[in-house]
Amino acid sequence: MIILSGGTGTPKLLAGMRKVIPEEEITVIVNTAEDTWVSGNLVCPDIDTVLYLFADTIDTAKWWGIRDDTFTTNDSLKRAGHPEIMRIGDKDRATHILRSDLIRKGRTLTEAIRELARSSGIRASILPMTDHPVATHITTPECEMHFQEYWITHGGSPDVLGVNIHDIDAAAPSDAVLSAIDGDDSVIIGPSNPITSIGPILRMPGMREILREKRVVAISPIIGDAPVSGPAGRLMHACGYEVSSAGVLECYRDLLGDLPDVFIIDRDDIEIGTDGGVEIVRADTMMTSVDKSEALSRRVVDSFRNLPVQIHA
Ligand code: GDP
Fold this sequence. Notes:
Number of strands: 14
CATH class: Alpha Beta
Bound molecules: guanosine-5'-diphosphate
Number of helices: 12
CATH topology: Rossmann fold
Largest sheet: 7 strands, parallel
């Protein structure tokens, strides 16, 4: 099972999915467009959340960082006049140091993450979407800034005029991503931000053609007229999409050049009109506990059972 992921909504789903299907059968393709270098180390927020989820160390109060982490280095840097853009925990920073060390020694990001996953005893495959650097920038009335500057430094408060994923047209999916998708018929688009998490994955050259041959089930990150958390609403609006599950579906139609086979929306969501071609399934998508994530994961897996297996010449 292939699952496309950002760093909050889909990891919540993964917490349940690993109870439904064997972990070694799960491949997560993770957004890298929010990655950034901080104090000499490469921070990969979405990948790290997925790593910590499978390592059972994720801080589920925030959905980033390691549970019960300390902040000694971050505090010392601040006292020394070097405030960091992110409040990075000490154990979390160790991940960043190890990854950056491997990269400086010539390993790809994919190889570095494989090494980190192996050393944490993780059996799922966690694959960065690409080994090429890509960066999401937000255009505000004043200037264009990196997504992390918009979201962390400015708390997501500036008006958003547009979203640019820099270098996405040159970002080939990694060989590991291509071979994982080649070997699997079923792809889940998790309940992640359609603009800044799923968008970069689907916009890599060749992805839409590859996914057109797959059975695709997507879960909406929007309920009613608002996301469950984060800036998805404002970013969708800035990109010309209605902030609703219908808007998410329209966004995926544009990204995929086609509709997903199944679109799962919340049981309390507003009616969604479709012009056919997609099965709308209602479920409780508010993952406030692992039990609820597991129940949703079962619905997701079940929804593939009704889809014909794709047979290609
Ligand atoms: P990011 O990388 O931290 O932005 O995280 P993601 O893109 O993976 O997830 C952000 C999206 O997850 C937001 O648009 C939220 O609305 C959505 N989300 C978070 N929790 C839930 C949940 O319990 N259910 C659903 N349906 N969506 C959720």
